[in-house]
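User: Run a structure prediction on this.
Assistant: Running it now.
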Amino acid sequence: MKIIIAPDSFKGTFTASEAARAMAGGVRDLLSDAQAVEIPLADGGDGTLDVLLGGT
């Protein structure tokens, strides 16, 4: 099973990449046979440049 994880940032808490990583970890803990694909998103506000640059 493939599960797409595509969050925006949680302002003041997590970047989109950090949120995706945390959510994917939860999926992997609960569904060990699932493939969690992390696709951080942005809405044009804070964190957009990080998402466009791949979190580097």
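The radius of gyration is 12 Å.
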